[in-house]
Amino acid sequence: MASVSPSLLPLLIVARISGLIVAGLVLVWALVYQTSFIPHHRPENFIYSLLHPLLMVIGFIVISGEAILVHRWLPGSRNLKKSVHLWLQGIALASGIFGIWTKFHGQDGIVANFYSLHSWMGLICVSLFGAQWLMGFWSFWHRGEMRTTRIRILPWHIFLGLYTYGLAIATAETGLLEKLTFLQTRGKVSKHSPESMVVNSLGLGLALLSGVVILASVSPRHQTLPSKLMYTEKKCLSS
Q: What is the DSSP letter of 142?
């Protein structure tokens, strides 16, 4: 069984800590400042408004980030890593779909709510994520038949996966800005209130999390540059 590379261990630790901080901040925001999530026109939809940030941040972003890092920390076979990656991404996708549904449920429908940059980016992000997951699911269960195709599309699969993850972070940031601006404009939250500090800290935590996850995912696993150069030189001399 493969062990975690020593060079990646600090990044994985920081990624986990960042994920816990982000999850903790969104829980504090949702549970301590519940009144900020009560719709002014339909208070009965309070629970749906409250579930939206929890599902999109913890369920969609944090879990999908963990799925990206599975290949870096999970010991075992390649198939095991792919299976865990696929299941975690499936949970993240379900959270994203249900999170969007809770936002639009019981209000004026999807069309009426599809007006902001945040909503546009959110639907595009979840759609890309769903396409990525279906591609990975099909590839996992048809490994033999799609070997050549998988090799060709793997770089694009990695690129789109990281791009979608970055887009999810950007979407969450626009959502935080939109929500906080809405609350401050209506006079419910002041600019220097504790809730504003929590939301701003959540935005910084998401930015840190995305950077660490992407860096850990693209960092080399085992060989360093000098060792690769030495191997290349020896190969050239022997030939």
A: T
